Amino acid sequence: MKLKTLKIVAGITLCIPLFMWILWLISTNKKMVIAIVDKTVLDKRNQEHVSLNWILNYQKYSKNHRERYRITRDYYGFFPKENEKFSIRGLERFSASQIEQLSEDADVAYFTDTYGIYKQEWYQQRDDQKASGILYGGLSTSDLEFLKKMKDKHKLVIAEFNTIGSPTSEENRNQFESLFGMKWSGWTARYFSSLDTLINKELPVWMIKNYKAKNGDQWTFKKAGIVFVNDLDQIVILEDSVSLNDAMPVIVSTDHGQKSLKLPEKMKYPFWFDIILPDEQKNEIIAAFNLDLNDRGKIELKKHGIPFSFPAVIRQNSQQPEFYYFSGDFCDNPISLTSSYFKGIGLFKFLFYNTTDPMERNSFFWNFYRPLMTNILKHQEAKQIKD
């Protein structure tokens, strides 16, 4: 009797994912042309835009009602190949008429990453001086021309962390800021679960080196903390229990963000983010980073002109927003596309992350990025139907 019960339970367990896959398979493809720009693709996992492709695949958004988006092909930017070979297929190769045509064809532009690829990252087997410097990256003049045309045509533009940071030129950065009503402060930051160089091997070597160079060759940090870096190579470090009551950055959503985009009230965020200053006459803050600072931390940030709270998500002040900026590296999450083929998979999201690990980012994808992008694209879909 027990064996029979086990067989029934096993059968039901196997049937559930099959049923979820069939539901996904029979759901209707929906055309939405999205121009994805990703200049930071070190390997074929395409992690810098994998979260977006998960949403597109799960929701069955396609390029032309039939062809779904392929993560390794359907974007503009850097394309890795075997044996340190690569190709660059960015908007820089487009003529003026081709950029105009793309702005006609595209419904959405999403700039997921423009940081680019540096030679010392790509040519891993070389340590000579020829392997230093940038290989490809930065917001280009062609990118800007495309963005201007999308804005002129009232098309949806989404950009996120580091779109206008290094290595984008100051001129192009200024044009983007003027175009979309926001300004980069020059600061980027990240949470680290440990600042102990003997324990955390993921601490960037350049960050430690730069800090020591300006602080008597000293690095005394051992606990968790947040490291701020600006475009002048200044480094400010806030350590847990020293400058912070709790080192983990938290994103707090406004009531408007919770209602219109189904965002959670609070969400931890343990990865890179930049500090931007929006023109609030043009853009509204939907969610903001809040740091749990003590008095010492507040003094340290104030000394360097860094605000205590700053936007995580802004959008254009409009009934139908045509611009969003995400201040974190939101699209970069270590998730698998496989789960996007199962309708209703969100009911089992708790199986995909471990909240006891402070550095895990899967919970951010499931609880923040997924509802954020799902609802932005649903609003875009409704707009297309109306138009």
Question: What is the topological layout?
Answer:
Elements: H1 2-26, E1 30-31, E2 34-38, H2 50-58, E3 61-62, E4 76-80, E5 86-89, H3 96-105, E6 108-113, E7 117-118, H4 119-122, E8 134-136, H5 141-152, E9 156-160, H6 170-180, E10 182-192, H7 205-214, E11 225-230, E12 235-239, E13 244-253, H8 255-261, E14 266-268, E15 273-278, E16 283-293, H9 295-303, E17 309-316, E18 323-326, H10 362-386
Parallel strand pairs: 1-3, 2-4, 2-6, 6-9, 9-18
Antiparallel strand pairs: 4-5, 7-8, 10-11, 10-15, 11-12, 13-14, 13-16, 16-17, 17-18
Helix pairs in contact: 3-5, 5-6
List its salient traits.
387 residues, alpha/beta, ten-stranded mixed sheet, four-stranded antiparallel sheet, 10 helices, 18 strands, 32% helix
Poorly predicted ranges:
6-10, 127-131
Quaternary: single chain
Gyration radius, rounded: 22 Å
The tally of beta strands, per DSSP, is: 18
Query: What global shape is seen?
Result: globular
Distance between the termini: 61 Å
Structural class category = alpha/beta
